[in-house]
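Complex 337.
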Amino acid sequence: MKHFLLATTLIFSAPAAMACETVTIGDLTVEHAWSKATIGAGRPGVFYVEIKNSGTTDDALVGITTPAAGMPMLHETVVQDGIASMPHAMSVPVPAGQSVQLAPGGYHGMLMELTTALKEGDSFPVTLSFEKSGEVTVNVDVLSLRAEGPDCADAGQ
Amino acid sequence: MLGVGAYRTRNRPARSEVLPVPIGQMTWTLTDHQGRLVRPSNWAGRPVMVFFGFTWCPDVCPTTLSDISLWLEELGADADRLIVALISVDPERDTPDVLAGYVSNFDPRIIGLTGPADEVAQAAADFRATYRRVDKEGGDYTMDHTAGVFLFHPDGRFASIIDFHEDRRFAVPKLRRTLS
Ligand SMILES: [Cu+2]
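Predicted structure with copper (II) ion bound:
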């Protein structure tokens, strides 16, 4: 059960959105991939996801690519002395036995140079590159600008 | 929590002794998302909640405005007299029209404010907020900015700040204390 060579996709029987899909690669489980609608294509989009490492080896998310943006990057929102900034994150650690979230107010994928505005209800693929596990592609649901996360039956675990 | 953690103490109004001045002593003039001039005197007698941000901001700003929208919904009509304003720290891109398109995604009681660079700077100085342009390759830029939400009593006195990473469950009780 731990040694899938290829990414597999599990679709829940409920009429759940794509954000509720779970994709696995090696010991990693990737789910709850979502984004927020943008006003036009000039503003950057954002990418959030949850990654669980059920193995015994530390891994790290080292990059993302997507046809939806010319310059996707990993960022981390940092609030220091009350001031928010968004430095580039070289990698996001995914330690053995732990879950990591790219979530509002923390790590996020920053989708610069969008090819088109992201509209609520759309979806687009993002390929995540892991230091050890390799690459895996997830479908990302575009939620409203106001959304705080996908509404999955198992979300928030 | 000790040391640096003390800065995060929940009900402490601010991190330093430098508090925002009372609304009545502020001197900025800004334009709201419907193109109307707004001055601090327009807010006299009403509780105030202010957040600094910009519409090109994909993470902190929509997250804060989503949170604020949820708080307003929880407060219901009790928050109808509350002034809720997003002050843009990026007036170069955030015109009133741009702000109108942006705030329409959130609770309708939230207004957007922008204006000439010196008026935005005056507002930031009055609120003791800071912001800084960060240039990126390709001529693009982003803004670092104060992320807390400022609360003022109806008489214009500074009440408290809701910090960005503060437990959001404490926000609505804090707001209720400000409204009364
Ligand atoms: Cu970012």
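Confidence is low (pLDDT under 50) at residues 1-15 of chain B.
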